[in-house]
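Supplementary Methods S3. Complex input for the FE2/S2 (inorganic) cluster-bound model.
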Amino acid sequence: MAETIRFLHRGQVRHLAGFSPTRTVLDFLREDERRCGSKEGCNEGDCGACTIVLGAEEDGRLVYRAVNACILFIGALDGKELLTVEDLAGPDGALHKVQHSMVDCHGSQCGFCTPGIVMSLYALHVGGAVPDRQRIDTALAGNLCRCTGYRPIIQAAQAMGVAVPDAAEMAEKLELLRSMKGDDSALLPGSADALADLLLHYPDATLVAGGTDVGLWVTKQCRDLGRIIHLGQVADLQQIERADGWLRIGAAVTVARAADMLGGLYPDLAVLFRLYGSEQVRNSATLGGNIANGSPIGDSMPALIALGARLVLRRGAVRRELALEDFFLAYRQTALRPGEFLETILVPEPPPDLAFACYKISKRFDQDISAVMAGFGLMLEAGVVRAARLAYGGMAGTPKRAAAAEAVLIGRPFDAAAARDAAAALARDFQPLSDMRASADYRLLVAGNLIVKFQAEWVGAALATTRVPAFKAGGVA
Ligand SMILES: Cc1cc2nc3c(=O)[nH]c(=O)nc-3n(C[C@H](O)[C@H](O)[C@H](O)COP(=O)(O)OP(=O)(O)OC[C@H]3O[C@@H](n4cnc5c(N)ncnc54)[C@H](O)[C@@H]3O)c2cc1C
Ligand code: FES
Ligand code: FES
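Predicted complex, serialized as structure tokens:
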């Protein structure tokens, strides 16, 4: 496919054409460019050895974010600035502050993880704020180090300081990036209209948003995806708007950006998104991709269903709207028709009298997939449940509401007895599977216990002690 992309690298605008659209950035760097600083560890987004940093315009500012190059297709570079570990040292070879700090604090032994860690720290360094310990932990959660251990790496992060951006240089780069915005192409459409037209012509094309699911179909399953279409330049799908009591989130908004906005409205969502993959994953993954992938264990769906989120689907010029829970038809089958795409996710702003909480149950704190994910939203009137939305992931072939348990709650005061009865009713809603993440019995038990916990927290409100201590938006103590 003769497509051209343009990106900024070491101050030069690079043009690339004639590449395979499913070539990863890591393979491009290591095999074509012979820049082997970025390492291949897992090739599935888990270890962070391949971490690079991309600069892009966000809300009128140039923002640098760490991403995993191993599952990123090359088209994702279009219109961005690329930085690899080779780009940090000065022209005379002098180490960058971040690298110096790693050396001074003895942050590297075998060194295999080191380039990725340096790039994660670099993104933190240029992030604009002096990072506290929580922020450092969050930034490093996607980088595995087997031999050094994290203490010296964290010390390096604490010692590296924070970059003072050169405003003129940033403005110049931003202009350059804006000037590189290409025309619509079959690989990289620039608007939702262009995407809609393309999909009418190529209804079998695979859409690639962040590629954190699709990338693995190539790197792990060696699948031939045929024609792919990137959503990275579809400007309308990157917008977040607030109007009439709703948040309208474009389907290609990254989880990181959605988390900032949603976490500000619903503190539980800030906690949830902190547990979602790693910073690198959240910086690439999109909210729309999480939904459209149709996985029964995706994290955002139960929480968003509990909030009454809705979707706008589009085919050509025709749009239809449906409740998020109605999008999932069966295991990995969604309501999307050929040629149709997810355009917008609508999330209501918090209404008064809403009791909301969500819980992710996984074996590890960082970088793990849920065994059970629960989202609970109750509308209360004088303590009595007027409407109930209890939604789960990991309990059925799709994200699903617990209709029987909801019915138990409606019309009753939300007290401990009601919570226990609702928990018992879950056996009528779900017959979960046993797999490597959890047994069926465990899933059913924990799903019920979460309702009980929700009620206890609701009654105790700020006094609740059942959560991981000192959890707060943006990080973990
Ligand atoms: C290391 C790692 C950790 C992870 N951790 C978590 C986690 O903790 N929780 C979790 O929920 N997920 C997790 N994931 C899974 C993944 O990150 C999410 O599902 C992610 O949100 C997918 O978004 P994406 O933009 O990368 O989707 P992509 O991979 O680009 O696409 C996924 C699917 O959605 C389709 N699609 C994308 N956008 C649209 C659209 N607008 N309209 C129609 N179809 C579309 C694609 O064609 C594809 O079928 C993890 C993945 C990795 C690699
Ligand atoms: S090689 Fe492990 S995250 Fe990329
Ligand atoms: S220094 Fe060996 S893996 Fe980190």
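Confidence is low (pLDDT under 50) at residues 462-466, 468-477. Residues 12 and 174 are 13 Å apart (CA to CA).
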